[in-house]
Structures are given as structure tokens and as C-alpha cells.
Amino acid sequence: MQFDELDQRMRVFETAHDHCVLPGVHIVLRLDGRGFTRFTKDVMAFERPFDERFRDVMVQVVEHLMQADLRAVYGYTQSDEISLLLHRDSDAFGRKERKLNSVMAGEASGVASLAFGRPVAFDCRVCQLPDQDLVVDYFRWRQEDAHRNALNAHCYWGRRAEGASPEQAHDEFAGASIAAKNEWLFQRGVNYDALPAWQKRGVGVLWRDFEVVGRDPRTGVATTTSRRRLHRETELPRGDDYAALLRGLLADPA
Ligand SMILES: Nc1nc2c(ncn2[C@@H]2O[C@H](COP(=O)(O)OP(=O)(O)O)[C@@H](O)[C@H]2O)c(=O)[nH]1
Ligand SMILES: [Mg+2]
User: What is Dmax (Cα atoms) for the chain?
Assistant: First the structure.
């Protein structure tokens, strides 16, 4: 059989299920570390529940993804997950889901493996959000998840430090109210409200414009050019203020 004929006949099996995200729909990519419960505990022995070294690698991965030519306008990380908002009109990989997922999972896995010095893997999924309100709600959802996990993790590891088994520590807080968990920590000298914002709200990465003052080498005339660079936000606002920040990004995407 001629190659051209074989190529044409077989290609369809590869491409027939290529789904594209429709134009006008916002794309958020969510990546999550594979088996990071074990990795953070047994392989790296990171501090629990939170370790700044782990956070810094995750932020480094976000920054790498923001610069991967997808027209990313906002990156967010909490725990072992990353969310990446693309410009609504991003045409990255022809908006093909399989390409977005596989390439971005690969990029994140590669950068994180180098940073940790151990092989790690991320999965990636495309979230398709039809309007701006849903984009705002998506990021509020992930931030509320961070908040809830931080409270639970501090209680869990607090109990473990007191000698409780994993099962005991888990069971003792099952069904406890938020107020009760806060109070339990407070009794032990931990003021949950005073914990670092990044633990409770995650870290955002966004583009910021800055001016570069220079001089035209031919005319000697002073010039200012606008450039942009990534900014790490470790003090993200919460609730309505966070929504306002996100709406600002959506109104004036980089
Ligand atoms: N020690 C430590 N572990 C962390 C930190 N951030 C995230 N993790 C771990 O990462 C896990 C992420 O959860 P999940 O994705 O559900 O677990 P996975 O399926 O094992 O990757 C958490 O359960 C924590 O064990 C950190 O700062 N320090
Ligand atoms: Mg994970």
C-alpha cells in the first residue's frame, strides 16, 4: 500500500475525537499533582500541613505555565493544584482539549520534576466556562476549597502531633463545625485568622505592566516603553474583593 493512502486511512483514527472548546467560551486549565499525599510525605518529607519550599515550586510551575504562549491571564495555586485562566479569545493549540491537556500536563510535570529533583506528574483537565460570572465563581470555589482544607489540615496535623492515629485524627473532626475547629485550634494557641494568607487563600500570579525608561540611541531622545512581568500575589483578597480582582482581569486581560 502507498504511504499516502495508508496515511489518509489511518489519520482519522487519531483525530476523529479531537474536541475543540467553542469560540467565546472561557478556558480554565486545572492541573493536579499525582499521588502528592505520598510524595510530600514519604519522598520529600515536607513540613506539614504547609511547607514554603513546596509552595515555591508550585508557584514556579504556575509562572512557567503563564509564559507558555497560551495567552494565560491568571494563574492560581493552592495545595498541589494549579488553575490557569486563558484569554477568552486564546487560540492556543486551536483550542483542542487533548493538546491543551497533554502539553500542559507535560510542561508542569517537567518543570516540577526538575525543581523537586524527583520525577513527579500532573494531570490536566479543561474546564469550559460560558461566561465571566462562572469564571469568577470558579476561582472563588477553588479559594474556598483552599480555606476549608487549610482549617482541616491544621486540625488534623495538630491532633497527630498530640499522638492521635490517622484514623483518630480524621474521625474526631468529622462533622465538626467551622467554629468548633477554630476554637479547637485557638485552645492550643493557634489563631487560624492570623495564619499566613497563602495557606488559607492560595497564591495568584498575574501580569503587571511597568514602564522602562530608556533613550533612543540614534536621536538621544528619552523614551518610555511599557513591558509586563509576572507578579506573585501571596496576599490574595477573599470574597467580594477577590471577585473584583478577577473581574478586573477579565475586563482588561493582558
Ligand atoms: N507536607 C505537605 N503536603 C502538602 C502540601 N501541599 C499539599 N500537600 C499534599 O498534597 C496533597 C494533595 O491532595 P490530593 O491532590 O487530593 O492528593 P493526591 O491524590 O495524593 O495527589 C495533600 O493531601 C497534602 O498531603 C504542603 O505544603 N506540605
Ligand atoms: Mg493531587
Answer: 78
